[in-house]
Amino acid sequence: MLRCKIRWIAGLVIWLFAVVGYAAPKPEVAGYVTRVRGEVVSEAATGRQPLALGRVLYLGDRIVTGADARLEARMRDGMVITLGEKTEFVVRQVAGVTPDKNNSVFELAKGVFRSVTAQAEAKPQPREPDRVETPVATIGIRGTELWGGFNLLDAGPRTLDVVMLAGKGVYVESAARGKRVELKQAGEGTMVKGPGQAPTPIKAWGEKKLQAAQRTVAW
Description:
Blueprint: H1 2-22, E1 29-37, E2 40-44, E3 47-50, E4 56-58, E5 62-65, E6 70-75, E7 80-83, E8 88-93, E9 105-110, E10 112-116, E11 130-133, E12 137-150, E13 160-174, E14 180-183, E15 188-192, E16 203-204, H2 207-215
Parallel strand pairs: 9-11
Antiparallel strand pairs: 1-4, 1-6, 2-3, 2-5, 5-8, 6-7, 7-10, 8-9, 10-12, 11-12, 12-13, 13-14, 13-15, 15-16
């Protein structure tokens, strides 16, 4: 009887170690929802959850907005992101949250977004540009407010537009050709007309196009 009890206890201890050892690590908190309108959900390994004011966003979350929906979120690095309707946006890494990373990286699969980078400290640490990866190009962010998105003014679902609204600078680099343009003045924009295409030459956007972009993320 004693031998059976010892075996039972030993088996229980081994099982507990296995459960603890193989338990999935808790995802890191990336940011928080600060404003929401309409149907907005997050998709993660744990399932699909509706997002409401104050809800936590985690690294790896895919945020999906419905028709006429909006989402505003503040990341833990201070960046504020606004998503327009019918957008898919993934939180890949956040500076200060993702181990050994000093920049934030996101993915825009479709739709539109606006981002406002946090104000730099008086003596900022050296930092890589934040990035938003898309199917056609990478957007690099250096202390900037910008808008980026697909199908602006019916340009096409694979056509990406990017405009710098304020700040230090933005680069747009073609995913396929490695061509890059640098936006350095507020109101400057560029377009990537699909996979394999280089960014168009920098051009100051007219008021009509600027207003159309702002409407896609307006509340």
